[in-house]
Amino acid sequence: MSLTKEAYIRYKIIDACISNSQEPYPTMDYLIDACQEKLGHEFNKSTIQKDIKAMKYDELLGFNAPIKFSKSNNGYYYSDPKYSINKIPLNTTDIEAINSALELIAEFKGTRLNENINHALEKVLTEFKEYVPKNSSQGKIIQTDAPPSHKGFEHFEFFYNATSQKIPVCFVHYSYSKRKFNSVIVHPYMLKEFQNHWYVVGYSENHNQLRTFGLDRIYEPLLLKKDFIEAPTAQKVEYFKYVYGVYPIPKQKRQEIIFMVKPILGDYLLAHPLHETQHIKKKESNGTLIISLDLIPSKELINYFLSNANLLKVLEPKWMQKEVTNLHLSAARNEK
Fold it and tell me: Does domain 153-241 bear CATH number 1.20.140?
């Protein structure tokens, strides 16, 4: 039997009606009316009869509901007064599924999440311990990329709340490139993770435009009592959707970026596209690919091209080709 969301809701309604000691022995008409009232459309007698049968006998559901019909009261009841589908024990399949899910959930505990989320996960894991005993004979089979605690992550919950509640913030920002501190006012729109580092993206009053700030460079953040400035939706969509990484290059517009890759990197990019706008323009017989991206150029994209310089060549735009070449030559000189 395929369990749909609506069918499950009907089971819950039927269960609640039969379990209700204030109105015992609900009739078929009563059950139909209850389902129609909750779900907002009509049901026939056949549907509810099938639901009751599934609750009693469907092995995949596993309810094994002890539903009986009382002729004298012309209604339904549970032969076990304490029964409810909310109290049914987990079966073997349930336990195996939860085991897998909890192992994955447990991987996200720790430094990547704020204290409240970690506390909630601890409660979930503890709650299911009696149902999901630890299998000591099998080692850990799921491992995620869990980096050590990053500087600035203690501000995650602060910026999450400011973003969700649309509250402007001010903070001291340290620039790694300029090696100096500045006080900035930002209207935060999004928290974004890229390569295990977190950033807040928002409208900067200091720069009069959308900007990205790494949490590791932020000090003494404060909430401000002032009107929140919203950026145009189209501007936010383009900034968030058409950037690889987090730092778009100033004054650059969205454009087509074309590069050629050798087969070994081409196979990887076919399996793991660099961005959703990735498009294969041409594939040579030897496996060489000509790939295009429709993006706002970013520092992270330049860095990606530099780190794979032996496997790819930027073709367009020409300014980016020149930039990558110059940076590559500069790095080669530093090695001497």
Answer: no
